[in-house]
UniProtKB/TrEMBL annotation:
It comes from Streptomyces macrosporus. Keywords: Polyamine biosynthesis. This is Spermidine synthase. InterPro entries: SAM-dependent_MTases_sf (IPR029063).
Length: 231
């Protein structure tokens, strides 16, 4: 008697868009949602611990040097929404700005499959979702933030598009520092720790540079790089 065949479920494309930065795809694989950009896997909804830590660690770092009333946070990259959900669940944040350059990703949260992840967070009166390029937004004028939480790539050493590398350059980090209040915190998500990026942060004038690692099931740990603008 032959053994029964195992059924392997294939990822199913829910939406595919082509925009100024290339192709972005939302897939469903079993119970998981996945975002693919230009053929590069970005993220899925399997875990979310490190994306939530990105926001939580930034607030903890602010608290370590004296609590601030109603601090403002910018989240660079909406993604699957874990970071926004974490920020909206914390009543202490006074202003939450999310900058996302892919209109498709904004749509998937506004009235698409990912709205269950953010659970109404975009409608929070503290939240503003900005459809813009992050580097351009940081280079512009505007009220500074107490924390910048950046998650637009697989890390400073593994960018989604070549132009994103400018974010982690001396000029890009100088723009981040200008958009932070004195003593404000920069937090950068990465799919792997980057000692070289720690050195770049110090060379850019940031202090209290450190990295928190988050173990994953297989491979190197995820990481959140933390740095503070001098007071």
């Amino acid at each position: 008697m032959s053994s029964p065949r195992e059924t392997v479920e294939r990822p199913r494309v829910l939406d595919r868009r082509v925009g100024p930065h290339g192709e972005v795809v939302l897939r469903r694989h079993g119970g998981l949602f996945q975002i693919i950009a230009n053929g590069c896997f970005l993220m899925d909804t399997s875990d979310g611990r490190s994306e939530r830590l990105l926001v939580r660690a930034a607030l903890r770092e602010l608290d370590a040097h004296g609590p601030r009333p109603a601090p403002g946070v910018l989240i660079g990259g909406l993604g699957v929404g874990f970071s926004l959900a974490e920020a909206a669940a914390e009543p202490r944040w006074g202003r939450i700005t999310v900058v996302e350059r892919e209109e498709a990703v904004v749509d998937w949260h506004r009235d698409g499959p990912l709205d269950a992840i953010t659970a109404g967070a975009p409608a929070d009166p503290r939240v503003e979702v900005v459809h813009a390029d992050l580097a351009a937004h940081l280079a512009g004028d505007g009220e500074p933030y107490d924390a910048l939480c950046l998650d637009v790539d697989n890390g400073p050493d593994w960018t989604v598009t070549e132009d994103n590398g400018s974010l982690y350059s001396p000029a890009g980090l100088a723009a981040c520092a200008r958009r932070l209040t004195p003593g404000g915190v920069l937090a950068v998500w990465s799919a792997r720790p980057s000692p070289a990026f720690e050195d770049t942060l110090r060379d850019a004038g940031f202090v209290r540079v450190r990295t928190e690692e988050i173990p994953v099931a297989r491979g190197v740990p995820d990481a959140v790089h933390l740095a503070t603008r001098p007071a």
